[in-house]
Amino acid sequence: MQHIKTPAGASSARKFLAALGGLWVLLGFSATTPAQEVNLYSARHYESDKALYALFEKETGIKVNVVSANAPELIERIKREGEATSADLFITVDGGVLNTAKNAGILQVIPSTLALQNIPAALRDRENHWIGITTRARIIVYSKARVRPEQLSTYEDLAAPKWKGKIVARPSSALYDQSLLASLIALDGEEKALAWVKGVAANFARPPKGNDRSQARDIAAGLGDVALMNTYYIGQMLHSKDPEEVRAAEEVGLFFPNQETTGTHRNISGVALTKHAKNPENAIRFIEFLTAVPAQERLSAGNYEFPTNPKARKHPLLESWGTFRTQNVDFSELSKHNAKAIRFFAEGGWK
Amino acid sequence: MPASLRWVSGNGWTTIRAAVFLCVLLPFLALAGGLFSPPGEHWPYVRDYLLRAYCTETLLVTLGAGAFAGALGIGLAWAVSMHDFRGRRFFDLALVLPLAIPPYIAAYTYEGLLGYTGVIQVFLRRHFELSLARLTTEIPAQAWAIWVFGVTLFPYVYLLTRAFLRHQSAALFENALLLGGSARLFWRVGLPLLWPSATAGVILVCLEVLNDFGVSSHYGLTTFTTAIFAAWFGMGDADTAIRLSLILLGLVFFTLLIRKALHNARRYHVVSSQEKWLSPHRLRGLPQAGVILFCSLVCLAGFLAPLLQMLHWLRLSWRGAFTADLGSALCYTLGVSGMAALLVMLAATGTANANRLFRSRLSTPLSQGATLGYAIPSAVLAIGIIGFFTGADLWLASRFPFLPERFLSMSSFLLVFAYGIRFFSIGYQSVEAGFAKIGRVYAEASRTLGRNVTATFFRVDLPMIRHAILGGSALVFIDILKELPLGLLLRPFNTETLGTMVYHFANNEALEETALPSLCIVLSGAAFLLLTQFWEKGEEKRVSGN
Q: Are residues B73 and B154 in contact, defined by beta-carbon separation less than 8 angstroms?
């Protein structure tokens, strides 16, 4: 029998295309998942969270699937996916962002009395669209060598001329400072908040730069005397695998500001149930798991955050800081004033 | 013609071209709406207070990085191609390696290396009581960014310039070389001749910088990309973000126009099927030492220093770093990058061949349009793609109920597709250059002898441009390994790319933990780069042996 002769190149091209198609199908079907599952869109990327997911899987047999990205991108993604969304739960840092998600209409009421009992009302949404899982405070850190804690008092005081050339800060693109400023807008009013930005910017020892931990390093290096920093970064630095980081962290002291006035700024991580969740029962079990004492204690121990369940014990380091008064600002205020905060930073010269 | 071939031959080629163009068009459609919608709530404020700052900062960093990378690339290509010195063959390879280091990882390692708790400052403090903290702070963030971009991206210029010097220049330079010294030759003859290939490289660098997010956000720069993220995700004002994207797009168009103009202004073409090799000028004494020092310093800055810093971090953090997560991230990243690189090269080869053979009024706009994926900010591209494929999934589900739920948008297809759009331009340019080199003569001869277009392509053209395709696929592959924002936004459940792993660690401010995934990116990129360099060497031996 005579073969029809085809050009050798063309047949290899066909084989190639077939292989390509096979690969695509393989990648496509790898997306299929077992029946018992819960899907998280998470903006928290801590190692301690991963350990918790594994524990939940072990306890319940429910597989935890995670997509992680920055919170606003996840919100935009859930919005665009609409009813087809695969997200059951949305987990993020920052009360303002949680509230933005709520206002975007992508969340629903969490129908779990157990979870609501676990967490005090102040640490969840008024309509229970989200529940807090950890909190952190944004505090003042100072050089133990050059500043006495008596010299410090409030956030507002950082705008005073006595701190000229002494403040180091990170760029205002950081949500942490945006939320702090939003809380000051809520407490002190717009005019004073803008003046505060201008005052602090006038006191900078150098242009804003780096992240929270680099502010502590720069204080240790003697470039500035005071900075704003989240509490858990201090915990991380003090327990770092890099001995030089530990040494730098030991150079700075912690000060919880505004104790006599409006309280220290506190922010929150929270979990929310999406409006179009496909696995609501599993999602609720996960929320109840996260807010119960064992998971809460693991969260605090793993990432040096404050648990939201009052029955959970704090990490010893956090215990050693004692109790402190926190701002009485509804977390929804943070998202309400966020855009204004970004504008004030730009106008006030805090890059 | 056999029936099985009909679907890719003849108009099949132009169909590929049109399909590629349509794919790239999709995310643009998501943007196009913004042109006609009313300006966002924050737009007047952004326009009045911030736009000028965005423009100046973006231009400063882009042009600064372009110029720095250009100077390094041209200088090194000249030094290595025109001269013979001790270690030349080593440097010839080593100077390509910085391309394996993603700029944002280089930025992290420089912070780790030169920062207050870094090895250098600690050493100086301990032994000499010297503090460099003030000094490193005095250097503005823009300069750091330009430095990082320059030392990691210059190989784009170096590779293109070196290729020109190797393949086209022997006849042009040798006579001139007889007439005078090397330095005068460089300024009088070399630079004007190198200009087009060097600017093509510089423009690649500029496009990378315009699209960067990792470095700008690390140094807190207000460039267009960070501004788009801030407007869209910070202020929640998508319309303002889209307006900013359009301005960025304008900048990119402008850059591409410059390239076109420069390309058209080229008044000479060296067309020769015979490649003649330049015999390099032997250096001795002080000039030799100078060239070796220059090459070593650049290798140190662009590759060795970041690598050593990663190894230092690995020493601190290796316990518990070798996890199953890392293994799967490595496999996933290599798989997806390979797959996307393959797709890009298929699309690029199809489009370039269609363009070469089937010229029409549409061909230039179609192929030029398809290369614009490189210009869309990744975040905007990702959001556009998600919107489109979610819709496509709903339609598929209604037609083919047996498909798994969310067949397209929850699989890696989304990511592969996005990478394809983003990096099509890189692959296309390589293939186009390959075709330009062989011209149409051989293809026409084969056609005259009775082979159809497709058979001609596989039997005649493909073997001749093989090496352009291999080189292009390497560049695409490495670019995908280094890509960050698309991976962050589009990877499916339970998957991490190496890049997203690095980013999460850095975002948690635990830089020492970035060591292992960073090393995986860098080492696999470097291995791939070296492989292509050896292929190219083999090819050259074959050509010069003839």
A: yes
Q: Looking at the predicted structure, is the pLDDT value of residue B32 above 50?
A: yes
In chain A, what residues touch B493 (CB-CB under 8 Å)? 31, 33, 39, 65-67, 86
pLDDT at B317 over 70: yes
Q: Is B447 on the interface with A (CB under 8 A)?
A: no
Note the pLDDT of residue A173.
80
Considering the four listed CATH numbers 1.10.490.10, 1.10.3720.10, 3.30.530.20, 1.10.510.10, the one that applies to the domain covering B49-226+284-317 is 1.10.3720.10
Quote the CA–CA distance of B94 and B303 in Å, as a whole number.
9
- The answer to ipTM > 0.85 is no
User: CA-CA distance, B251 to B264, in Å (whole number)?
Assistant: 20
Q: Within a 10 A sphere around the Cβ of B73, how many other Cβ atoms?
A: 29
Q: Do A6 and B2 touch (CB under 8 A)?
A: yes
Of B227, B206, B203, which is closest to residue B217 (Cα–Cα)?
B227
Work out whether strand A130-143 and strand A89-93 pair parallel, antiparallel, or are unpaired.
unpaired
Span of A320-334, B66-80, B254-268 with lowest mean pLDDT: B254-268
Show residues of chain B in contact with A9, CB under 8 Å.
Answer: 455, 457-459, 462
Task: Indicate if the pLDDT at residue B531 is higher than 60.
Answer: yes
Q: Quick one: average pLDDT of B320-349?
A: 88
Residue to test with chain A: of B117, B139, B235, B417, most A Cβ within 10 A:
B117
Tell me, yes or no, if the two domains A37-135+267-320 and A137-265+330-348 fold the same way: yes
Cα→Cα distances A138→A94, A185, A334, Å: 12, 16, 14
Helices (H), ranges, B129-237: 133-138, 141-153, 155-168, 170-179, 182-185, 191-211, 214-219, 224-229
Q: Is the pLDDT of residue A4 over 50?
A: no
Cα maximum dimension of chain A: 100
Instruction: Give A89-115 pLDDT, tens digit per residue.
Output: 999 998 989 998 999 999 999 998 898
Identify residue B240 by its one-letter amino acid code: T
* Amino acid type, A8: A
Chain A residue at shortest CA distance from B397: A84
Contacts of A31 in chain B (CB under 8 A): 404, 406-407, 410-412, 492-493
Distance CA B417, CA B431 (A): 20
Residues of B in contact with A26 (CB under 8 A): none
Matching residue, tokens 């149409």: B440
What type of residue sits at position B201?
G
Contact check, Cβ <8 Å, B404/A28: yes
Question: A interface mutation test: which of B1, B319, B493 has the most A CBs within 10 A?
Answer: B493
How far apart are alpha carbons B474 and B159 in whole angstroms? 13
B124 at interface of A, judged by CB pairs closer than 8 A: no
Alpha carbon distance, N-terminus to C-terminus of chain A? 79
Distance from CA of A149 to the nearest CA of B (A): 24
CA-angle at A177, arms to A200 and A104, nearest 5°: 140
Q: What is the CATH number of domain A37-135+267-320?
A: 3.40.190.10
> For chain B, which residues make up each domain, given as ranges?
49-226+284-317, 318-546
Burial degree of B452 (CB within 10 A; 0-12, 13-18, 19+) = middle
Question: Which has more pLDDT, B103 or B403?
Answer: B103
Quote the distance between the C-alpha of residue A24 and its chain's center.
Answer: 35
Q: What is the pLDDT of residue A18?
A: 60
Superfamily of domain A137-265+330-348: Periplasmic binding protein-like II (3.40.190.10)
d(CA B331, CA B329): 6
**Min CA distance, A117 vs chain B (Å)?**
31
The answer as to CATH 3.40.630.100 being correct for domain B318-546 is: no
